[in-house]
């Protein structure tokens, strides 16, 4: 079982851990960011992000802290507007009054395709200091194989939103292609990038991401796509997973399941699992959206019952803490 840190969150989506251990959590539908004290569970709204257009699977989604957050206080956010998905950075001023602690957004990337579905949304800084973004194909499957489109990709960029200088195609933000809807990004102890991806009706995927590689959608879903495409390292029936966030901890990838309403553990040894994936918390807390490492041997889990597809009960949505071994 997991312990509840706090409850009463509305459509929580992205999360980032502050240097003191507290969490910043985005509300997809309300376009706000809330600070959660990880000692007491106290919630404080720090501000809202202007220009967010919520609806369907869009809204205020992923959060990430600048690698130099201690000095620049920049919070990066991925969100949907009336015309596109974009990434902006906002300065977090803890000295300002609650509710007004976020500066004006400085857009670093615009033009990611938007749709009622498949907006991607996860962002994270890698060990190389570059910003990575998982995008969706916005329901237009042809975008995933189009190298000129930002949809259905994993993007890699500088803090200013420019293509990383050593990307596979110089001058392009595209790091990998052939994705349907990437919402989980994490690096293991050896610096390898892993990504979780929603399948359509058959297979959800956990992929080991290599620069310039093609992961098959819409030509392939799951394993067996042929030599042009990279097979997933692990796959699940969609009713068992529908994965969103992932995290690396204690030698395993941990994957939050929405439709599957469970947390998957995938033990790793090098680039391959060393044991069959194991499910935890099955149907105990409903839909699980986000997972991230906590201090010591723990994980933070964020539920997603108020996203329009769950069955919210008293207390939803919640932040949970789980000890792992």
Automatic annotation (TrEMBL):
The record's annotation in InterPro entries points to: 6-blade_b-propeller_TolB-like, Glc/Sorbosone_DH, Quinoprot_gluc/sorb_DH_b-prop
Show where the Glucose/Sorbosone dehydrogenase domain sits.
9-309
Question: In this record, what's one Pfam family?
Answer: GSDH
Q: What is this protein called?
A: PQQ-dependent sugar dehydrogenase
